[in-house]
Amino acid sequence: MVATVAAWGCLVPATLACLGYLVPALAGLRRRSFVPRRRPTRTFTVLVPAHNEEAALPRTLRSLAALRYPPERVRVLVIADNCTDQTANVARAFGAECSERAEPDRRGKGFALAFGLEHALRHAPDAVLVLDADCELNTDALGALDAAFAAGAEAVQAAVQSANADDGPGGFVAAVGAAFDAITAAGWDALGCSVPLRGTGMALGRGVLERVPWTAFSAVEDAEYAARLRRAGVRVRYCAEAQVFCEAPAGVAELCRQRRRWSGAGLLASKPLVLGYVVAAVAVGFLCGYLAWPAALLTALGLLYFRAVWAVGVTRTRAGLLLRAPGVVARLGFVTLGAAFRRPPTWDRSHRPDGGRRAA
């Protein structure tokens, strides 16, 4: 009797967690595509919050210059937030508009976004696209977002992909995690649900920004604002055709530092933590004499992660990194669990392999 209660007590929540991944993964097989239109009509302000990003910013601005979208309908606005380097000068050298903000007592990306959105809305764009200063867009990103807004969307999240899957175990695990998020986001969108905001690559219509002003200032400002949108009845659509490429921390220590900051989004938002719980529940199920049920859970979750790994691509280098992934995932789970009860800093910084730094 005790074994039965223990098995069911562990396996039922684990099953619900797996279904939370499996259902959208299957639904996403029939997702809607947003194909760029021949004559796009919407105007965009690309808002780039930057804190000491002189090293990374040029690559971001070059990707914006290469967009296949009418240039007269695009405005690039860089917010140099409490910078002590040449971020503002770099932005202006590339032809971007730059506003500098110096408020040491109000630090953090959320404050930078509030400042930038206020400036952006003065020009009444149809939508504002938030892009981190160390990220790049694919050339058709704005065209795809224009198509999404033309289809009735009020807020759209672009697909966020890792650009450095080969740079160590941290980079590979982050790349698989990003692919997993893309799979489930496409499914939730196909099911008519709102998808999470990712902090970068989020496009917000002017009407939404006027109706739901930005007042998210926590370390997980994207999750905070997404919750406000849900309460306001605004559905966030997912656009796989608009792609944002970001470099994740390649080292495990730096990746843990980043995830420690993100832990404020909630324990259930942590895939490593959920995965660890499911594996533990499966082990309890086996020990209590249950075979088919835990085996089915393990198989389903394994297939989902195999699909994510396949989406990233398998090479000889990545096969070696895959063997190290379980240890990295376990460490991330413990880090998330421990950090959930501590308040992280607002602008957490992670070293990049090239010597630059990024806002994690």
From TrEMBL:
Taxon lineage: Bacteria, Pseudomonadati, Planctomycetota, Planctomycetia, Gemmatales
Family listed: Belongs to the glycosyltransferase 2 family.
Domain of life: Bacteria
Keywords tagged on the record: Glycosyltransferase, Membrane, Transferase, Transmembrane, Transmembrane helix
Pfam families to which the protein is assigned, alphabetical: Glyco_tranf_2_3
Keyword Transmembrane helix carried by entry: yes
PANTHER family: POLY-BETA-1,6-N-ACETYL-D-GLUCOSAMINE SYNTHASE (PTHR43630:SF1)
Protein name as annotated: Glycosyl transferase family 2
Entry GO MF terms: glycosyltransferase activity
Annotated transmembrane regions: 6-29, 267-287, 293-314
